[in-house]
Write a structure and sequence with these properties.
metalloaminopeptidase activity; Leucyl aminopeptidase; 6-stranded mixed sheet; Macro_dom-like; manganese ion binding; manganese; alpha/beta; Aminopeptidase
Length: 462
Amino acid sequence: MTDFPALLIADDGGPAKTLTLLAAAGLDDWLCSQSERTRTFVAAQGFKAQPGETALLPGDQPGDWSALAGVEADLNPWSLAAAASRLVPGRYRPSGPIGAATLGWLLAQHRFTRYRKASGDTGPRILLTSEPAAITEAVRIAEATALVRDLVDTPAADLGPGELAAAIEAEARIFGAIVTITKGEALLAANFPAVHAVGRAASRAPRLIDMHWGDPAHPRVTLVGKGVTFDSGGLNIKPGGGMAAMKKDMGGAAHALALARLVMQANMPVRLRLIVPAVENSISADAMRPGDILHTRAGKTVEVTNTDAEGRLILADALALAAEENPALVIDFATLTGAARAALGPQLPAFFTNDEALAVDFAAAGALSGDPLWRLPLWAPYADMLKSGIADLNNAPDGGFAGAITAALFLQAFVPERITWAHFDTFAWNPAPRPGRPKGGEALGLRASWLLLRSRYLPHGS
């Protein structure tokens, strides 16, 4: 893991290069206050103070120089990401408050190095901040985001259901949480038939991972994450292009684990539960078939109309388990549908909830955290598409209409009305690089969810 605490430190007054933050609208006024020599150097580098641009300015003595960074007028989490990538290693003192922009500075320097060494870097870029009270929070969020990215980027050969369980156990040990794992055939005896049905075809046994932390007297908050460590599509096999990135199909579990980590780090006064059904959707003689009828923990039966709609099946058992404790809040994360990506693209996770107050709070948290999300409706009339002639539900309606909504409605069928519930259909992936956000695994909706939990369960959001 990247040593994030070493990259963001309280300003100790020691030597550092000045990093002047400039928005395009303020460039002319700033240039008017500078020497002709400075204006010449700025012009020679073509610096227009556009977001992501940088420039260097020489000082009066050898080795004396400073830097400029183009930023938005209102800083966002990624405003300094390009600067952290382009500036030479060293210590930098920004010209003003940097707020949430520390996140991009930190994550721009994170590398996934499990399979190859990072190239091109010669040392860290250290940011000095005059807001030391914000350092711990910024570092924790960067670490949680990096955890999501690294888990999602790990190929399925090295991250199957067992390794995902081990990653959860490792976090649990740090914070004294208790983990129970139900594996393989024991899933049937423990009444997780849908998890077993989806994962039984793989050589690596399916698991239901259940973690508890915190005082049972505190409000119960349950996080659920889809843990499909690889999705071939099953007998409804995906084409090669659709299967290429399916190591990321456990991205929901990675989000839920990272959010659980933030809760435990903050010692939030909640009774936290993390539930992850972990499976590989594979093909063998024992694979579930189109037309099979699956039983679920909730007692409902499901006609399998598409084996590639497996995530909602394992989540059905997980959500039914979550509801048994009557938690105050359930949040699930899943890389669930291509329909959500078609509707919203790769940067906006689709968000559903059965509670209007929660919807308002999530919208505010997304805006304040710079972690955008978009609410889609639990449109009740579309539940007719989930009807089956021989079971209580089907798992994949014909026609392809409203795919993200019908998937959410399927999940809602396993969440009792008394439970306040939110569902994220997240991509967990950057298909193309942007400053601070390389191609690969990504946390989408994590920061918004953390801010919501902070505002609800930490005194004064502290």
